[in-house]
Amino acid sequence: MALNPYDLYDIRSLLSEEECAVQDAVARFTDERVLPIIGECFDRGEFPMQLIPEMAAMGLLGSSIPTEYGGAGLNSVSYGLICQELERGDSGIRSFASVQSSLCMYPIYSYGSEDQRRRWLPDMAAGKVIGCFGLTEAHGGSDPASMKTNARRDGGDWLLNGSKMWITNGNLANIAIVWALTDDGINGFIVEKDMPGFSAQLIHRKMSLRASVTSALFFDNVRLPECNRLPNVKGLKGPLGCLTQARYGITWGPIGAAIACLKEAVDYSKSRILFNRPLAANQAVQLKLADMSRRITLAQLLSLQLGRLKDAGQMQPTQVSLAKWNNVRMALEIAREARDILGGAGITTEYCPIRHALNLESVVTYEGTETVHQLVVGRELTGINAF
What we know:
Oligomer: single chain
Number of domains: 3
Strand order of the largest sheet: 2-3-7-6
CATH topology of the largest domain: Butyryl-CoA Dehydrogenase, subunit A, domain 3
Number of helices: 10
Low-confidence stretches: none
CATH superfamily of the largest domain: Butyryl-CoA Dehydrogenase, subunit A, domain 3
Distance between the termini: 50 Å
Radius of gyration: 21 Å
Shape: globular
Largest sheet: 4 strands, antiparallel
Number of strands: 9
Mean pLDDT: 97
């Protein structure tokens, strides 16, 4: 019996019936709705807004949020498969879903009040309210504790001042989950789009994540009522907890990008005739393709086990760091190798490897750089913090 060339270890057989159904549905969505338009969206530097209602109708926004708050109530492996299939289309599409689900809906659900959950989560799941996540600052990067954005009490309200940088969905967002220094440590706030003093500015001239909205956020004495503060968390554990959720999804997403690149490289190498034989008949090409398959298989097993640990309540941040580091690096190297196999054709967005390679240059950086994740693993091994 022939093996699935993109699932050599039959990992599909380890999935539940529901998990398979989720993967199949999102795969169809990517094939039918994302792939036909995403190359042109990337070329134009536009996010395909028309996909948001469809993603919402499929339950892809806040898929792990309980149904009583509008979510789909799916398990973590299902969420990972959603990320994998969306990023098989484009990292920008997966980034949109990740930010909405893990960085915006998750903190409201986990750290918010019951009133905040009831007010925001159903509309966010329905795609009627879009969120963004304000943590990174222009000079902060990998050191979020150095943030300058601050909030001080003014009567019963808060006054928020500062700025955030590299914010996915910033100019699309109706609300921003913003983390700021206060006299009582770092607190999270729900900042609404129309609040006076709040503005978002598009970041242009990007060569990566072009089919995604990236913005800078600015806060000039934005007045926030106490009911807009997330009451159930203080300190860095709040935003870092959100990042762990998002990083988990990112361990799955690049697998999809890598599979897309491998498939294109296989198809091209079998059809491209060079020196009177298919390119795929060369040992050097087969060695490259086989190595891509090896790396993808290892990444699939890594993320599946991570998902099982997460669903069992046993996942540790170090394990997420290891998988994020390995899987994004894997996908980036495969995208570059696939581009090389395609030769000159590989530099155009008519084919997917160059687009995925450019996108993955961002994915390897955001949600913790590769170096940060290496140092997290090193700290676990030695007990010594080398940051």
